Amino acid sequence: MIVRPLAPEDLARIERIEQGAMPSPWSEAALREEIGAANGFALVAACGETVCGYAFFRTVLPESELLHLVVAPEWRRRQVATTLLRRAMAGLAAQGCTVCFLEVRASNAAALRLYASTGFIRIGTRKHYYSQPVEDALLLTRDIMPAGEERNEDIAGC
Ligand SMILES: CC(C)(COP(=O)(O)OP(=O)(O)OC[C@H]1O[C@@H](n2cnc3c(N)ncnc32)[C@H](O)[C@@H]1OP(=O)(O)O)[C@@H](O)C(=O)NCCC(=O)NCCS
Predict the structure, then answer these.
(1) Is any ligand 1 atom within 6 A of the Cβ of residue 79?
(2) How confident is the model over 127-150, as a mean pLDDT?
(3) CA atoms of 125 and 27, how far apart (whole Å)
(4) From atom 40 of ligand 1, which residue's Cα is the shortest distance away?
(5) What does the pLDDT average to over 96-109?
(6) Inside any domain, residue 155
(7) What is the pLDDT of residues 47-80, one digit of tens each?
(8) What pLDDT sits at residue 60?
(9) Which domain range does residue 61 map to?
(10) Ligand 1 atom closest to residue 104's alpha carbon, by position in its atom list
(11) Backbone φ and ψ of 102, nearest 5°
(12) Whose CA is nearest to atom 48 of ligand 1?
């Protein structure tokens, strides 16, 4: 498995994962907009032609924000998200980012454990931030080490 920059050709596969796995899937238009965003940074974890997971970030130097992170259900609990985040932190460091922010549903225990294990800490709450269902968002952040100091290895195999 490799982690590489997301390409426009990945769009159809990502859309299928969104529709099949996410309660509030991103639309094709939203995905296209993010892929084309000037200050966007997006990675996929791929095994051959198969997209296993993906992450979308925006950068406003020196800050970055994780907008979306999804691993296809059949690839979960195999360190795909952990690897995507590690590679993303290294890539963001290379662009000059020193910090990353994200919001996550307060009930998303899997994501909260993932983020804790990859160095994110909680810095606040946004009340009733999400809809369908209405729920608070937890605001998390993580410092990004200078380029070359972030762990940056691929997953061993498919
Ligand atoms: C959250 C998500 C991205 C995790 O992806 P993943 O590739 O399965 O995560 P990893 O295998 O790298 O897991 C790393 C650690 O996170 C925690 N974790 C991940 N999934 C978990 C789960 N379902 N239950 C409990 N802990 C979990 C564990 O501590 C895990 O380490 P371990 O497997 O050694 O115990 C994935 O479940 C997903 O796509 N969920 C739907 C979308 C979503 O919630 N995105 C985040 C929104 S902010």
Answers:
(1) yes
(2) 93
(3) 26
(4) 70
(5) 97
(6) no
(7) 999 999 999 999 999 999 999 999 999 999 999 9
(8) 97
(9) 2-143
(10) 48
(11) -160, 160
(12) 104
**Domain for residue 99, yes or no?**
yes
Where residue 122 sits, what CATH number does that domain have? Answer: 3.40.630.30
The pLDDT confidence band at residue 145, using thresholds 50, 70 and 90, is very high
pLDDT value at residue 23? 87
Asked whether residue 77 is assigned to any structural domain, the reply reads: yes
How many structural domains are present in the chain?
A: 1
Band the pLDDT of 156: cuts 50, 70, 90: low
9: left (phi over 0), alpha (psi -120 to 50) or beta: alpha
Q: Is residue 106 part of a domain?
A: yes
How much distance in Å is there from the Cα of 11 to the middle of ligand 1? 22
**Which amino acid makes up residue 98?**
T
